[in-house]
Specification:
The complex is a heterodimer of chains A (288) and B (288). Chain A is of the alpha/beta class and 288 residues long. Chain A has eleven helices and eleven strands. Chain B has helices at residues 3-15, 19-39, 41-67, 74-108, 111-116, 121-151, 160-182, 184-187, 192-206, 218-226, 228-242, 250-281. Chains A and B meet through helix 2, helix 3, strand 6 and helix 4 of A and helix 1, helix 2, helix 5 and helix 12 of B. The structure holds adenosine-5'-triphosphate and magnesium ion (MG). Adenosine-5'-triphosphate (ATP) binds at residues 30, 46, 48, 66, 68-74, 281 of chain A.
Chain lengths: 288, 288
């Protein structure tokens, strides 16, 4: 589209300085339905994102850690134009997720914890139509779909089988393939390896690294796997109840919290031990 | 990290999207729905049998009236009822495909990936509309021929070409209305599709599917004036029962064209609002 074309300055212009991801004071509040009876009958609000700010440079991999309900998926959804933020701003390669959603969609793809496919359709069919939505013709995907499925370690003889027959790990590989097929410049990974066996996890991680090296993709990775964050990411952030507490190199994080391991640093940052953890969803209600 | 390469990739992404890519996306929507029909072919056959049974029931009413002492031209009444039932089934298919596909996508979780894709919303919806028309036409023709054969109805001098043109023009409005109901599953994930049936039922009662509109009370006739189904049924009955040529069809074609011209942008506007609402309140996600 010409409007988005004209908004990109020449290659040696200021565009070089535009970060892959620029998030400033991002806010998102969810309203929850009334709890029937009891003292919580009022409508409750949950601040899923509470003033999050950070930038990610091009080619960088940033991991975001956080407990259940800390706002990781909400952040990913706002960045992929699936949720409208209530305040603040976020831009992808200089394009605002609200005002220039169409441009953002051409740059981003996402893998989430749930594979999400038409379960009766085969892996090939699911990838085929999805690629079309990104403007790839049948001629282009004839070779690239088998190729990418092979690279993520998906068995050749199961390509035409309905996806409902596949194990979760297999489905997750197809989800990864769906994202990689469109060669996104910003890849949003929301717990891509949760529920995978150790070998599949390794394979997926190796593939993410390869993706990054060969495609110069910028990656935002939300995970509960601290080791994964440590091996894949240049910088690691901790999201806690909608706030980004810290975002830095692992060595810096450990130093800041006087910790020996990322795990210790994570608990020091979030200020709670396993034993003290309460339901995070109930912890942070704002009554409205 | 090769910043130059990233810059190139970003520029290529943003500059590379054209109407051609939208067309590829539209083909992708049709392709997807064809896969779904293929994978659920037994369900499609069962559903068709249900439609046939339903239509036969209605056409038998004409014979029933005569058998219980009424005096009517059975052949003509049966043909008129058949036209009503077939158009009704056709309209039902269009609504069903548009609304159920959205509900289905939300159920499988693929809706997030569809909405993240660069394919624009109008083209995405027109793709579903195009598939619905093709599929609906095939079924309508099959249903009509089958029942004609079953009842051994004679309709000498029928102008089928004129009838098809009227149906084609009416289809534009049907798709516009279908797009409006398709947004319901986004707003109410559990009961949205059922609300679509209510809209369809209201059209059934006012549009004279099985009786002339004149028998309705005045206020219902007023609603019939803006229902595209009213004109579609009028025109198609004129063409098939009276053999009226297309040239004499101005009374139907013009209102249909006007309603279509209003229904499509209105449908898109309604859908846009619904999509915005869903993105504001986090209604697209199923889990994760
Ligand atoms: N669509 C929604 N509607 C209502 N509330 C929501 C919605 N999505 C998220 N929330 C709430 O926002 C908060 C953050 O949720 P989010 O899914 O972003 O957490 P998360 O960090 O991804 O958690 P997990 O590790 O369990 O995936 C939670 O309190 C959640 O209940
Ligand atoms: Mg999550």
């Amino acid at each position: 589209m010409s409007s988005s074309l004209s908004s990109i300055p020449s290659p040696d212009g200021p565009f070089e300085d535009v970060p892959a991801l620029d998030v400033a004071d991002l806010r998102k509040v969810f309203r929850r339905g009334a709890r029937t009876g009891g003292r919580f009958s009022a409508r409750r609000q949950v601040a899923a994102l509470d003033g999050v700010s950070f930038t990610v440079q091009r080619g960088e991999t940033v991991a975001v850690l956080g407990q259940n309900g800390s706002g990781k998926s909400t952040l990913v959804r706002v960045l992929s134009t699936l949720l409208l933020p209530d305040g603040g701003s976020a831009s992808v390669f200089g394009h605002d997720v609200l005002g220039e959603a169409a441009a953002v969609r051409r740059l981003v793809n996402r893998v989430s914890v749930e594979a999400s496919f038409f379960k009766r359709m085969s892996a090939s069919e699911n990838l085929s139509y999805a690629a079309r939505f990104h403007g790839l013709t049948a001629g282009q995907t004839r070779d690239s779909i088998p190729d990418i499925l092979q690279r993520v370690g998906f068995p050749r003889d199961r390509r035409s089988e309905p996806m409902e027959n596949l194990s979760r790990g297999m489905q997750q590989k197809v989800a990864l393939a769906r994202a990689l097929l469109t060669a996104p410049v910003l890849l949003l990974l929301d717990e891509p390896t949760t529920g995978l066996d150790p070998r599949s996890k390794r394979e997926v991680q190796a593939f993410i690294r390869e993706m990054r090296a060969t495609h110069d993709a910028t990656i935002l990775l939300c995970t509960h796997d601290l080791a994964e964050a440590e091996v894949l990411a240049d910088r690691v952030g901790v999201l806690d109840r909608g706030r980004l507490l810290v975002l830095d190199r692992v060595t810096e994080l450990n130093r800041r919290y006087g910790a020996d391991t990322l795990e210790d640093a994570f608990f020091a940052a979030t200020g709670r031990e396993f034993a003290e953890e309460t339901d995070p969803d109930d912890d942070r209600e704002v009554f409205a | 990290m090769n910043l130059q390469a990233t810059t190139g990739a970003v520029r290529q992404r943003l500059g590379g999207w054209s109407p051609r890519h939208e067309l590829i996306g539209l083909v992708g929507v049709v392709e997807r729905n064809l896969y779904l029909v293929k994978r659920y072919v037994w369900w499609e056959i069962a559903f068709f049998i249900w439609t046939v049974a339903n239509t036969l029931t209605i056409v038998f009413i004409a014979r029933g009236i005569e058998a219980t002492g009424g005096t009517i031209d059975v052949n003509r009444a049966a043909a008129s009822l058949l036209i009503g039932a077939v158009i009704w089934a056709y309209l039902g298919i269009i609504f069903e495909i548009l609304t159920e596909t959205v509900a289905w996508e939300r159920w499988e979780g693929t809706i997030e990936y569809t909405f993240m894709a660069p394919l624009s919303r109008p083209v995405h919806l027109f793709g579903m509309g195009a598939f619905a028309l093709l599929y609906g036409m095939v079924r309508a023709v099959l249903l009509f021929s089958l029942c004609l054969f079953f009842f051994d109805l004679s309709i000498p001098g029928a102008d089928f070409a004129a009838a098809l043109v009227v149906l084609a023009v009416a289809s534009v409005s049907f798709v516009g209305l279908g797009i409006m109901t398709a947004v319901l599953p986004l707003i109410s994930p559990e009961k949205g599709s059922q609300l679509g049936f209510i809209a369809q039922g209201l059209l059934l009662v006012v549009s004279g599917v099985y009786y002339p509109v004149d028998v309705l009370p005045g206020w219902m006739q007023a609603i019939a004036v803006v229902s595209p189904a009213t004109y579609a049924l009028d025109g198609i009955r004129d063409a098939i029962l009276e053999g009226e040529p297309l040239g004499a069809m101005g009374d139907e074609i013009w209102p249909l064209a006007v309603i279509g011209l209003v229904a499509i942008p209105l449908g898109l506007a309604v859908f846009r609002r619904g999509e915005r609402y869903a993105k504001q309140h986090g209604k697209l996600k199923r889990s994760g």
